[in-house]
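User: Sequence in, structure out. Go.
Assistant: Echoing your sequence, followed by the structure tokens.
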Amino acid sequence: MNTTDIDVLRVFCAGDGRHGNALGVVRDGRAYPDEAARQALAKELGFSETVFVDDPERGVVDIYTPGVRLPFAGYPLVGAAWLLDLEVVCPPAGEVWVRGDGEFTWIEARAEWAPPRTLRQYGSAAEVDALTVPEPGEWIYAWAWEEEAAGRIRARGFPGRGDGIDEDEATGAAALLLTAELGRALNITQGRGSQLLTAPGPDGIIELGGRCRLERTIPRQA
């Protein structure tokens, strides 16, 4: 059997390096050549998403939750681009351009690439903090203004999938949808303290940025 490493990243970390959403990156996607094998590994690992790298030179990647394959997802693309030092990543949804500014890694994406989310506004950050995990059902992105003039938002994400991910620590796709709805740059604190930044651009493009760090590497027999 071949050994392939699985890197575990934290994406959308806070300024002190804490928090962020755990992401599995399989550097050699050939070790898991079909959808069934990839879906099984994603379920076993149990991260919100796992990325399989099919072509590290061209940035071709394949993304899975524990239950489904995704054509696009924000935090896996930010994380994979940072880890592999890419200028473009190519999930099934299309080419996603990348830039880095030292502290943050940014991708350019479109809100229509994001899967459906129910954006549910609350009156205060305290109300969002007090929420309990809802029953499985729709994907809910609960949010409230922390400081509207500065574009600061408090948010929590509840996938509602019943696949063991009750709350998503940091959700790039939902941040894109909220940015498109509000039409302005946002500084989002999600989950326990993860930070996501967004900035609308021309022609429907939205930049999504965050900090990344490598947490550990898992040797794996494939």
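User: And one key feature?
Assistant: The chain is about 15% helix and 40% strand.
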